[in-house]
């Protein structure tokens, strides 16, 4: 079984995760995997999957969580701070630059049209993502009703999300616990 | 103070962000546009579009909302609030993860969360459509994007570029 090759220092962690942040459009997780496993070989594919488990289990931006985990693994607390900073610094600067441009030119009809076009595409990408995730769910007749309930409560009734999620987790998680026990 | 309020609101949201920042769109809209009136519908949609067009993690939309609400301090406060709480939790938990990975309750939560995330992301899409007040041409683009994205293996950047070009030409 191949061992992970090298032990990155703080600088390498910052730069490695910067490259991930700056190359990712529409979800950077695949880029993180490529950098960690294939390009720099800081971890094997098995190690990557094992660590990703908790990052996906917990709420919050998965890829930030992953940067914390990888940073901690190689450089302890400092690594856990530097890796997510590297991931965010570049994209943050670009986003703020775009925000400045928006403040100046955002009211022009050309800019409004462009943003409208991107928003429409973004809406389509979200729908496609929801569709794919929905199709990947097993035992749809047990679980898809919970998706419908969330849409009703969040998009329809506009209930506060923390309560909806709490109730949803108890109900949907309860059904999942029961179904898991049957096998 | 608005920055403190922003920080507290987003820190609370980070605990229910199953599915990442994308799943939070409807709730961010509810808090920022409907409750506090910090932004209007049009600005919210525009910030979403800008975040789509920029490279980086999806969490950037949070940064942009913070920026528009309270400038640089707001941008940093919102981003930190979204990332820091779970980063601390994961820092403390990762060494014990193997101890509870695969346990029945852990798998039940993972399984139970995914249909909720589907509902949240779908809600986010309907919300963007509502807030942007799409006309028929924009809806056509939405449908075309869904079909193309599900059938072709194209990089998302191509879709963004096409949307920007069509919008720039005044067609959407």
TrEMBL record, chain B:
The family database entries (Pfam families) matched by this protein are listed as: Chromate_transp
Q: What is its main location?
A: membrane
Choose one Gene Ontology CC annotation of this protein and give it.
Answer: plasma membrane
Q: Which UniProt keywords apply?
A: Cell membrane, Membrane, Transmembrane, Transmembrane helix
Molecular function (Gene Ontology), one example: chromate transmembrane transporter activity
Which residue spans traverse the membrane?
6-26, 47-67, 73-94, 106-128
Its membrane topology is listed as: Multi-pass membrane protein
Q: Which InterPro entries match?
A: CHR_Transporter (IPR052518), Chromate_transpt (IPR003370)
Where in or outside the cell it occurs: the entry states: Cell membrane
What is the similarity comment for this entry? Answer: Belongs to the chromate ion transporter (CHR) (TC 2.A.51) family.
- Protein name, UniProt field: Chromate transporter
Q: Which organism is it from?
A: Dechloromonas agitata
């Amino acid at each position: 079984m191949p061992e992970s090759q090298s032990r990155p220092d703080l600088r390498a962690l910052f730069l490695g995760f910067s490259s991930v942040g700056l190359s990712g459009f529409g979800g950077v997780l695949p880029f993180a995997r490529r950098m960690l496993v294939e390009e720099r070989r800081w971890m094997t594919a098995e190690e990557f999957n094992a660590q990703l488990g908790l990052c996906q289990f917990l709420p919050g931006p998965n890829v930030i969580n992953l940067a914390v985990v990888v940073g901690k693994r190689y450089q302890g607390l400092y690594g856990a701070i530097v890796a997510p900073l590297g991931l965010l610094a570049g994209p943050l600067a670009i986003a703020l630059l775009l925000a400045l441009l928006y403040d100046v030119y955002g009211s022009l009809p050309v800019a409004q049209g462009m943003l409208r076009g991107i928003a429409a595409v973004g809406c389509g990408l979200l729908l496609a993502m929801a569709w794919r995730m929905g199709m990947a769910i097993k035992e749809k007749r047990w679980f898809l009703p919970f998706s419908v309930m969330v849409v009703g409560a969040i998009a329809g009734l506009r209930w506060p999300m923390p309560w909806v999620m709490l109730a949803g987790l108890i109900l949907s998680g309860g059904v999942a616990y029961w179904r898991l026990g049957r096998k | 103070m608005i920055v403190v309020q922003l920080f507290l609101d987003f820190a609370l949201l980070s605990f229910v962000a199953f599915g990442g920042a994308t799943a939070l769109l409807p709730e961010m809209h509810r808090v920022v546009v409907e409750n506090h009136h910090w932004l209007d519908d049009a600005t919210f949609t525009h910030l979403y579009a800008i975040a789509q067009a920029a490279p980086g993690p999806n969490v950037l939309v949070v940064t942009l909302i913070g920026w528009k609400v309270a400038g640089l301090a707001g941008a940093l406060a919102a981003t930190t609030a979204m990332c820091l709480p779970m980063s601390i939790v994961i820092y403390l938990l990762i060494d014990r993860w193997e101890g509870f990975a695969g346990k029945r309750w852990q798998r039940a939560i993972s399984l139970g969360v995914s249909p909720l995330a589907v509902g949240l992301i779908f809600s986010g899409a309907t919300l963007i459509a509502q807030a942007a007040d799409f006309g028929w041409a924009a809806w056509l683009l939405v449908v075309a994007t869904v079909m193309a994205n599900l059938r072709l293996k194209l990089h998302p950047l191509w879709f963004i570029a096409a949307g920007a070009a069509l919008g720039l030409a005044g067609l959407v």
